Amino acid sequence: MDITAIIAQLIGGAAGGAGSGKAIKDADMGTVVNAIVGAIGGLGGGGITGALLGGAAGSGDIGALAAQLVGGGVGGVVLQVIVGFIKNKMVAK
Q: How many Å apart are CA 55 and CA 48, to the nearest integer?
C-alpha cells in the first residue's frame, strides 16, 4: 500500500466519521473527535477494500483510488458510530 491509498483512506474516513456523527446524534462526540475516529476507521475500511478488490490506488488507476476513498468512508462511519454509541452510553450511566 502506498501513501496515496493511505491519504485517500484517511480523508474518506474523516469525512465519513464527521458526517455520521452529525447525522446520528446519539453517536456524536464532536466534529474533531468524530473525524479522528473516522480517520482511524478509514484505514481499516480502506485496507479491507483494497484487499478484496486487489487494487493499488497509487498505480494511476482512478477506480482504485475511488475504491480506497469509499472504503475509507464506510470504515470511518462504522467505527465512529460504534465508538460514539459506547462512549455516550458509558457517560449516561
A: 11
